[in-house]
Amino acid sequence: LVFFSAEVGRRGSRGWMRCAAGAASAVAGIAAGESAAGATRWRLVDIGTLGGPGSYGAAVSDAGFVAGCSDVMPSGVHAFIWRGGTIRDLGTGGGPATGNSCALAVNGTGTVAGRSSTGELVIWSGSSVVGLGVHGDIGGMNDAGVVVGGYLDGTTRHAYLFRDGTLTDLGPLATGGATRPHRAAAPVQPR
User: How does DSSP assign 14-53, residue by residue?
Assistant: First the structure.
């Protein structure tokens, strides 16, 4: 996995952007030759894999954490978190060792939310894993560790909020029309 990191302005305040979303902007900004006072300097970062042939970054925090999924050897996919040159295998999220997991959100403290190998949504914090008790999607997570998203209850998709170990059902999600159904609650406010 390769992504662009950007340093903006004289004092070098940081912003992070995924490669897929940022490549065109990076090339345009570099080609435009922005002024020195408000210049954006781009740096390509290869974060590697967990031993397999590829990896995928799903989320990047303002603090420089990258979370996603990486191929592992001899087969399978594990969730990972990366920061400052170190990639860490988060395992399968408490599911079978041979299953696939994926990190889908990360906050500024390095807490990660994603899907375990059983399909249950989980939160990785340090060496602990907490299950949310539902299968679904992660819509976002803030620095306080509040997670929002969606899950299927029978045939109805519901929004949820997970805070301090408690999952709160926010009710059925309205559809956005036949071409754009709402899949999850997102994003979540910083506090």
Answer: EEEE-HHHHHHHHHHHHHHT--STT-EEEEEEE---BEEE
pLDDT in tens, 24-48: 333 333 334 444 556 677 788 889 9
- d(CA 159, CA 172) in angstroms, rounded, equals 6
Q: Are 159 and 184 spatial neighbours (Cβ–Cβ below 8 Å)?
A: yes
> Exposed (0-12), middle (13-18) or buried (19+): which is 73, by Cβ within 10 Å?
exposed
Indicate whether this model's pTM tops 0.90.
no
Amino acid letter at 186? A
- From residue 179, give the alpha-carbon distance in Å to each of 150, 152, 155, 182, 183: 18, 19, 18, 10, 12
- pLDDT for res 155: 87
57-105 residue pLDDT tens: 999 999 999 999 999 998 899 999 999 999 999 999 987 788 899 999 9
Task: Let me know: does 133 contact 175? Beta carbons within 8 Å.
Answer: no
Q: Give the β-pairing of 147-153 and 66-72.
A: unpaired
Work out whether the CA dihedral 181, 23, 66, 37 comes out positive or negative.
negative
Provide the CB-side half-sphere exposure for 74 (13 A, CA): 0
